[in-house]
């Protein structure tokens, strides 16, 4: 693996809290300039992974290189190359947006003029100029996240960790945040390490996705590769009467049927052609259909298939009260 | 070098907080001022007689104790502001930046010192208004500021350490509360000779007493004597142990 083009490489990462094994041998490689998403249910170890890679806590075992530096031996060099925006906003609520950015500039020793210019530029870019002099405590959730990310960008990091960046944001703010992330990669050439529990978010943003379940990576690949890993594409037909259901069920190559619901599931292997043939067949045999729907596999299917949870419920996105 | 510039930056941050919310200082001067008025006007007649003088004599006796009470009160403010930082995401940001790690704490401590001196000045002003007439020379005043700075520095580091015992802001604000008792269980309000056995022994062997006695001597233009060294030793000891403790908790 070419070290110049890899921004994160992790081998055999382990971390336990007492008897509880949070990370149990995780291996990761993230190419520079890409968005990597770590997906997993609550408690899978996503935040622990980010905390270790961003030097907040120490791993029990593992070879880790971040931005070309050994994490254990050169933590300060790693810190100089990364930026972290966590799920709890890391802004100083007593200070104004501009003062928060200037604080970062001072800590990075940018110098007065440069610090001021950088703050102004970031306020402009993140649409915070009007609120620049108001205390950050008065900002809305979306504005706080934008300020948070702007603070992370003062130091022009090579790699940014985004730990659940849109948790608790309304749909509009979420979309703004996604656009910001895309721009970061496209315009600034930043690499992104994203954790999220919104599958849609990973699908929208990530070049590669890894699924973390009970401290292990259970799958890794592009969103498309992951979707191909699970059988999910199918057509569901619900018949209008039991007679039609009986006549059709044997002929359609249905993989599963539901006698009571008068419903069959047909694997969708040929896309539109399968659908047209199906409709023609039903038409020819004059069978009444109450409902017909086409399902393409999504990351939800992948997620539910590959992450073994004790309860097989569909995970609902958590809605924090903040 | 980086430790110094980063600490200056962090101190500036604390002073901005103070500047933005000046009511915080009022809160920390409120309690000592109430004690001052209460003890001078309610108990002052009896107390003054007890030390062989009158109410006016007692104002002079009491003021050094009130100064130390102010330091103990401000410690609660420090603990609150440190605990707020530790519970918010901002400390994770500081920890993942390539800055001098301890600067987050030194910023709090230096900011708190500024706050301490503003509060002590305000309380002293009230004391002067109600009849406090110190007879200290310029050099004595320098000594007063020095002793107050030493002790405030020590107590502030202690409150930073205490604030990191808990992740809870309310608990953090209560932990330094017993410090308010030190001037009472020392020579802050009455001479230790008037106390019964065990209490008197404690009063004469705890840090607030030599600090108060030194301030009292300097403010009345008497030589500080051995009390000064004792106050310095206590302050240095508390500051060093608390600093090491706070730094360890922070790095964990």
TrEMBL record, chain A:
<keyword id="KW-0046">Antibiotic resistance</keyword>
<keyword id="KW-1278">Translocase</keyword>
<keyword id="KW-0472">Membrane</keyword>
<dbReference type="InterPro" id="IPR027417">
    <property type="entry name" value="P-loop_NTPase"/>
</dbReference>
<dbReference type="InterPro" id="IPR003439">
    <property type="entry name" value="ABC_transporter-like_ATP-bd"/>
</dbReference>
<dbReference type="Pfam" id="PF00005">
    <property type="entry name" value="ABC_tran"/>
</dbReference>
<protein>
    <submittedName>
        <fullName>ABC-2 type transport system ATP-binding protein</fullName>
    </submittedName>
</protein>
<feature type="domain" description="ABC transporter">
    <location>
        <begin position="8"/>
        <end position="239"/>
    </location>
</feature>
<keyword id="KW-0547">Nucleotide-binding</keyword>
<keyword id="KW-0067">ATP-binding</keyword>
<dbReference type="InterPro" id="IPR017871">
    <property type="entry name" value="ABC_transporter-like_CS"/>
</dbReference>
<dbReference type="InterPro" id="IPR005894">
    <property type="entry name" value="DrrA"/>
</dbReference>
<dbReference type="InterPro" id="IPR050763">
    <property type="entry name" value="ABC_transporter_ATP-binding"/>
</dbReference>
<keyword id="KW-1003">Cell membrane</keyword>
<keyword id="KW-0813">Transport</keyword>
<comment type="similarity">
    <text>Belongs to the ABC transporter superfamily. Drug exporter-1 (DrugE1) (TC 3.A.1.105) family.</text>
</comment>
<dbReference type="GO" id="GO:0005524">
    <property type="term" value="F:ATP binding"/>
</dbReference>
<dbReference type="InterPro" id="IPR003593">
    <property type="entry name" value="AAA+_ATPase"/>
</dbReference>
Automatic annotation (TrEMBL), chain B:
<keyword id="KW-0046">Antibiotic resistance</keyword>
<keyword id="KW-0472">Membrane</keyword>
<dbReference type="Pfam" id="PF01061">
    <property type="entry name" value="ABC2_membrane"/>
</dbReference>
<dbReference type="InterPro" id="IPR047817">
    <property type="entry name" value="ABC2_TM_bact-type"/>
</dbReference>
<dbReference type="InterPro" id="IPR000412">
    <property type="entry name" value="ABC_2_transport"/>
</dbReference>
<dbReference type="InterPro" id="IPR013525">
    <property type="entry name" value="ABC2_TM"/>
</dbReference>
<comment type="similarity">
    <text>Belongs to the ABC-2 integral membrane protein family.</text>
</comment>
<feature type="transmembrane region" description="Helical">
    <location>
        <begin position="138"/>
        <end position="163"/>
    </location>
</feature>
<keyword id="KW-1003">Cell membrane</keyword>
<feature type="transmembrane region" description="Helical">
    <location>
        <begin position="21"/>
        <end position="46"/>
    </location>
</feature>
<keyword id="KW-0812">Transmembrane</keyword>
<feature type="transmembrane region" description="Helical">
    <location>
        <begin position="175"/>
        <end position="192"/>
    </location>
</feature>
<protein>
    <recommendedName>
        <fullName>Transport permease protein</fullName>
    </recommendedName>
</protein>
<dbReference type="InterPro" id="IPR051784">
    <property type="entry name" value="Nod_factor_ABC_transporter"/>
</dbReference>
<keyword id="KW-1133">Transmembrane helix</keyword>
<feature type="transmembrane region" description="Helical">
    <location>
        <begin position="58"/>
        <end position="84"/>
    </location>
</feature>
<feature type="domain" description="ABC transmembrane type-2">
    <location>
        <begin position="23"/>
        <end position="249"/>
    </location>
</feature>
<keyword id="KW-0813">Transport</keyword>
<feature type="transmembrane region" description="Helical">
    <location>
        <begin position="224"/>
        <end position="246"/>
    </location>
</feature>
<feature type="transmembrane region" description="Helical">
    <location>
        <begin position="105"/>
        <end position="132"/>
    </location>
</feature>
